[in-house]
Amino acid sequence: MDIDLILRVYPFFIEAAWVTIQLSVLTTILGLACGALGAAARMSRLAVFRWIGAAYVSVFRGTPALIQVFILYFGGPQIGIQLDSFAAGTIALGVNIGAYMTETIRGAIVSVDKGQTEASRTLGMSRWKTMRYVILPQAMRMMIRPLGVNINALIKGTALVAPISVVELTYTAQRFIGSTYKPFEMFLLAGLLYMVIIYVAGQGIAWLDRRARIT
Amino acid sequence: MPDTPFIDIRHAAKSFGSLEVLKDINLQVQKGQIVAIIGPSGSGKSTLLRAINELDPLTSGEVWLEGVQVNKKLSHSQYEKHVNQVRQDIGMVFQHFNLFPHLTVRGNITLAPKLLKGISTEEANRLAEEQLAKVGLSEKIDAYPSQLSGGQKQRVAIARALAMKPKVMLFDEATSALDPELVEEVNLVMKQLAQEHMTMIIVTHEMGFAQDVCDRVLFMDQGVVVEEGPPDVIFRNPENERTRNFLRKHLAAQK
Ligand SMILES: Nc1ncnc2c1ncn2[C@@H]1O[C@H](COP(=O)(O)OP(=O)(O)O)[C@@H](O)[C@H]1O
Ligand SMILES: [Mg+2]
Q1: Do the beta carbons of residue B136 and residue B148 sit within 8 Å?
Q2: Would you tell me how many other CB atoms lie within 10 Å of the CB of residue A88?
Q3: Alpha helices (H) in chain A, listed in sequence order
Q4: CB contact under 8 A, A138 and B102
Q5: Neighbours of ion ligand 2 (CB under 5 A)
């Protein structure tokens, strides 16, 4: 193992890790937004919205995320959507994970006991107030862990923007392999940094989950 | 309108798909009256109770409360407004309590009054204290539901319903999920409400309680009211064969 080489390229990998972190954070935010909207649509009183929500979930879970990234980045310009690779990657991955988060959020909401809704509606509370003050506070606690699973998958999934030349960890490893012919060291370094990012994210989620349980 | 019943259920019918659960039920309750509904499991008692506050809307028939039709046919948004309004007047207590587990006892009681009646936090707190004193749980005001026994949970659920100052209280087997030694504390609260002349409809399996507290007893079977009358008559001297069978089986099972 070439330790010298690792020490030389290390700073570039740290920079790349920072890009991976930015991708992960932005994708999580976009994914949560899409997931919240998707879940609202899936549970709407109106059939059109339910249909749109279901279509969103089955299209984005039913095709490879890599194809979604390619369609937006390479296919986008053909239909007038011109995005740089970072933006295209973030949007494609965010919308993709949003489909999974839609199901996670909806699952947590429907898992709240039906009696809770009945008790709230019986007191005269509207659908919205019931959701806001009775169901969501309970569902939020239950969705932290499964959303953590989505976020774990999403962080690993950021590697899928390497082929469109976003200078994140996987892309950086590949680039240095081209000049050093040391794939073992390069992928090992990238892998270690992914592990650190995923570990920290996992700890953060576990902390949130504990906090939500105590109160 | 002295002759208009406080609660008036006319020709109530309800089907779940092809299953007819209520068949042409008529029930009039006067203000301050206490009515017990008894009958075998699956006879439609819960469904009838839940039709009164539109949790399970009737397929046909009418429900009136104090001259206002509860199950009015309205456009969706108007209907929502209307039921949210009338439900404030109809308290309901469930077999499984359905307390809000993420809120303290105080939070459980004050949530709806604060949101729906626009009262201040101080007023809401006073209301919570007042209702809790009534059910004998003042010291539990800052406890979470998970820290309470079943009987205490049900008393909090009653306090939560009462905090809305309902005109009528509906009880759906309020003590059926409780350990036997906890039944009495809940029954006591209900008896106290009876003394205060709260209008109540009580679905129960406790014949002794029904006999002590209620003005009238309805026996339901297979979606119809088979027989109704004062408790003395229904329990001591029922006319109908089905009522007699039910009571015989039930009392035997209780021993
Ligand atoms: N939401 C529902 N969907 C379908 N069937 C139901 C529903 N609620 C109740 N039922 C059926 O209606 C009948 C009466 O139920 P219920 O009113 O709960 O009876 P009871 O309270 O007297 O035990 C039962 O056969 C029950 O299975
Ligand atoms: Mg029942």
Answers
A1: no
A2: 23
A3: 3-42, 47-61, 65-70, 85-110, 114-122, 127-129, 136-157, 169-180, 183-214
A4: yes
A5: B 46
Q: What is the pLDDT of residue A2?
A: 80
Residue A1, pLDDT > 90, answer no
Query: For residues A197 and A203, what is the distance between their CA atoms, to the nearest angstrom?
Result: 10
Tokens of residue A140, six digits: 């939020």
Q: How many CB atoms lie within 10 A of CB A87?
A: 14
d(CA B212, CA A104): 50
Cα Dmax for chain A: 70
- Reading the block at residue A100, the tokens are 């999974």
Chain B interface includes A46 (CB < 8 A): no
Task: Round to whole Å and give the CA distance between A189 and A169.
Answer: 9
Q: Indicate the CATH number for domain A3-212.
A: 1.10.3720.10
User: Which positions ≥6 away from A54 have C-beta within 8 Å?
Assistant: A42
Q: What residue ranges do the domains of chain A occupy?
A: 3-212
Is B93 within 8 Å of B154 (Cβ atoms)? Answer: yes
Indicate if ligand 1 lies below 6 Å from the C-beta of B46.
yes
Tell me the pLDDT of chain B averaged across its residues: 93
Instruction: Kindly list the residues from chain B whose CB atom is less than 8 angstroms away from the CB atom of residue A109.
Output: none
pTM of the model: 0.90
Q: Is A118 left (phi over 0), alpha (psi -120 to 50) or beta?
A: alpha
Question: Can you tell me the ipTM of this complex?
Answer: 0.93
